[in-house]
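Posting this for the archive.
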Amino acid sequence: MKNYILLLAAIGCLSITACRKNSTYSGSGTSHVTVKLTDAPGSFDAVILSIKSVVVVTDKGEQTITVGGGPINILHFRLGKDTLLAAQDIPAGTIQQIRLVLNASGNKVVVNGVTSNLTTPSGQTSGVKLNVHDNLVGGIDYTLRLDFDAAQSIVLTGNGTYILKPVIRAIPVAVSGAITGMVTPIASFPKVYAIMGTDTVGTLADTTGKFFFPGMAAGTYNVKFVPVSPYLVKTVSGVTVTTGAVSDMGTVTISQ
């Protein structure tokens, strides 16, 4: 319970889908982070939070992710259920802190049918802070699952008002892998396809010959190179992707 500190926010996973044609990542210098919120049971009818944004602080700086939608009754997301708060590509590096910024109004608790406002002094300004230390590898998808403990987070004061003192456990998990490598000669300028079953993901080798597939589901792929003429098509079989790791194919030579 020592890792339970201060409030929510959230960073699903971008998994491979049938016939996905192109990578949407800006490069291996970013990680796709999805923040999700779940709840440990508490003895309330409802706990409603109005979340403005999620700030992810890494050793590369701060990234603010705006949270859309209206207030969330977090008690709907318990016993393994969760809800997506936000998702965004951020620079790869080390997460140092997550800050959840709440709107000034719309935060409420319902007890025995009576609705009361939740006072959240720090959550409305700099944000409720949650210290997290986890490395983000470029090109890997991550889910940051925030487990909100409603029973410990809501305090009834002596004058009958409720104060929100968030207690949360952060569980960062890698949910994908990646494939990278080099092609030679650069003049072959191939289209590159990673194929597993009926799923195909495509990319291009850049001007240095490098290719990169981020956000790949774990499994074994055939990687197919379709170069310009007069170079010949080549397929490399048995390329294994492991969750949380980048599989480096080294240099692949394209023949004429």
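The first strand starts at residue 30 and ends at 40. Residues 27 and 239 are 20 Å apart (CA to CA).
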